[in-house]
Design brief:
Elements lengths: L2 H8 L6 H10 L1 E9 L3 H12 L5 E6 L19 E9 H18 L4 E7 L5
Antiparallel strand pairs: 1-3, 1-4, 2-3
Helix pairs in contact: 3-4
């Protein structure tokens, strides 16, 4: 019998399991990366090489305007768009992603690449 099975049979599953879940949630980060669609390949290769990112959500053709790059509005004046990728990861993986994005920003110049990370309060 597995430990989880023993715990469930012995009634231990409820004892401390909420604390464990809360500790795990406290260690999670949501990382969001917004970037020029022209550098999608570089971003995805970077994430694959450093972070073993297997679960994420990605939006393409996103409109945006920043302070260090041209607008990406998908219109006849500003025809480019952005991609946005979000992933809920542990603290170590979030730190690795943020470090790699910082490195990639140095090589891409003003192409448009920004990452944000924040704590996750709850997961279902």
């Amino acid at each position: 019998m597995t430990n989880a099975g023993r715990a469930a049979c012995s009634g231990e599953q409820g004892i401390g399991s909420e604390d464990r879940v809360e500790r795990e949630k406290a260690l999670m980060k949501m990382v969001m990366i917004a970037y020029n669609e022209a550098v999608d390949e570089e971003v995805m290769e970077t994430l694959a090489a450093c972070c073993d990112l297997v679960a994420f959500t990605k939006w393409t053709k996103v409109l945006g305007q920043g302070t260090h790059s041209e607008p990406h509005l998908l219109d006849h004046i500003w025809p480019k768009g952005n991609d946005v990728l979000m992933a809920c990861v542990d603290d170590q993986q979030a730190a690795a992603i943020m470090a790699r994005v910082r490195e990639l920003r140095k090589t891409l110049g003003k192409e448009g690449l920004k990452a944000f990370a924040w704590s996750v309060d709850d997961v279902t």
